[in-house]
């Protein structure tokens, strides 16, 4: 499935790095930035999340939810090592189910590609960027998109 701007964002419930269930629908009324990433501790992912962490105040109050196919224990170690205060969610089992719902799962490698989705308070996708595993994203584009989303 290809998810387009204007489509309803598929709802999900995943475990965060603390083992808590987090549902996308629980954030209705506020913007959310879903950030799919392939591998905890990889160089590009570490750099992207350091930038998000260091510039969180510039994201217009949006909730950041990071999602990988790594187990929540690996996500906990990654979040702790990087001082990430937002939820890092595990799409471990059923493996890649949420990434598939967003059309960002790489079947050959078994991980999420780099996909970012800005979702408005009504649960609608208002902006997206999808890139390959080795292609970093630009945080400035998130800020611009969030400036127009409520």
Describe the structure.
This protein has 150 residues and is an alpha/beta fold. The protein has a single domain (13-146), classed as Glutaredoxin. It has helices spanning 43-54, 72-82, 97-101, 139-146, and strands at residues 13-15, 21-23, 32-36, 63-68, 87-90, 105-106, 111-112, 114-119, 125-131. The strands form three sheets. It has a five-stranded mixed sheet with strand order 5-4-3-8-9. A two-stranded antiparallel ribbon has the order 1-2. The protein is globular, with a radius of gyration of 14 Å. The model has no long low-confidence stretch (mean pLDDT 91).
- Give me the strand/helix succession: EEEHEHEHEEEEH
Number of domain units? 1
The CATH homologous superfamily corresponds to Glutaredoxin
**Total strands:** 9
Q: The CATH topology is what?
A: Glutaredoxin
Shape descriptor:
globular
CATH architecture: 3-Layer(aba) Sandwich
Average pLDDT, all residues: 91
Lateral strand order in the biggest sheet: 5-4-3-8-9
Which residue ranges are poorly predicted, with pLDDT under 50 across at least 5 consecutive positions?
none
Structural class from helices and strands?
alpha/beta
CATH class descriptor name: Alpha Beta
The main pleated sheet reads as: 5 strands, mixed
